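Re: Re: token formats

Sure, here are both.
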Amino acid sequence: MKYYRFSLDDNIWVFRDLACGRYHSIFDHPYLSFLRQIHEEFHTKIQLNVYYETEGFCLSEMPDSYKKEWEENAQWLRLSFHARANDPPSPYEKSGYDELFADCSAVQKEICRFAGQTVLSPFTTIHYCKVTPDGCRGLKDCGVKGLVGLFRPQDGEQVDYSLPKETEAYLQTKHFCYDEGHGMFFVRNDLIINAHPLSELEDVLKGKENETFLEVMIHEQYFYPDYPYYQPDFREKVCFVMQWLTEKGYRPAFLEEMLK
């Protein structure tokens, strides 16, 4: 059996929009409407990794009036912590236990308040994937069971999540592993959809059809026309990848369903 997991990073604008109160349903928002369309067409299970704040808005302002709807869709739509905010880059590269524990707890608390405990995923991707060992311990104490990273070494760069070099090397050829030192699972990302033109995605995916698992993702902001780096083919890119995965026999799954 072959599986894939699809996630979206940097999510906050959708919650800011929902907090304005002009949507009867969360799926009246075009972003979530599109994600539901993907689920209905391809049975995709989708995870949104969430910021606590953006300019002029923080997650505590998100109303709980949609909570029942979030809970009713938890079998395919889940949320998790990503970072406090989009800036600065690599926000936790030198952070200790307290900062990671506080930021993760803050986002988890709000998710449970407005969406319900069943929507909260214990797996996530931390913004830029750079976290100290103490920071990882803070995440673990928040209930995080596993982290997704790139594990593509660059000279002089900190290894994703401060993993031992041998674990990083292992993840360059394997999809996931459990690291005893961290007490967590680690999962290798296989595709960042927004990093490639639509015309190149087929070539990028070539050779991956016989893998047992693929981790694919995209970032929220590229969906919006007012974003400076808006990708007007955002929908087409996601649909292409989901269609490819489906045709190659991959089934959707959450990481918590696979790694226990």
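Second one below.
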Amino acid sequence: MGTAALVLFAQGRAFAQAIPREGAVTLAVERAFSIHTLHTDIENEPDRDLTAFGLLWVRSESALHVPRVALDVFVTDGLSVGGSLAFYAWSGDSDRSGFLLAPRVGYAFGLGRVVTFWPRGGLTFYSEEAPGGSPEYEQLALAFEAMFAFWPRHGFGILLGPTFDLGVTGEVGDDRDFQQRSFGLSFGLLGVL
């Protein structure tokens, strides 16, 4: 298995690209695998802290950790504009469903032939509902990511890096203030179209 991965990586090296060029479009699945911590502050309730680890649909107290589909366009060599989108549903003690939208801007720096450092920042908004009188949640957060893209093959990359989400404003359905902050390490896959 390790030999096969090494061969794939070595063969792709000649075709790899450290920085997507102007006009390139990337399509990615982000936060597909993560470990993260979360602090939740809801008005008139004790603060809650959580650490979660998982592959794909991590059951968390926050939509900030759900896997997303992302699209980014490189408007110049290195400078990207884009965002991510997620629709999700959880079931269990309390069923929930919602959506997340996260526009962002980033700049990619080549670190050799097969590694790119791609810091990105933007806003994340999510809205979540629950049937049967459970409170609804909405939040706007600042989002920062310091992703490394590893390019084993031309047009295919592996994303790995830290994420930080800082709730700026939010509301629970009964008009209470609500904020979350999260720090984590996430993994994803991307392709250059």
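Strands lie at 25-42, 48-55, 68-74, 79-90, 96-107, 109-110, 115-129, 137-153, 156-172, 176-192. The helical segments are 2-13.
- S.
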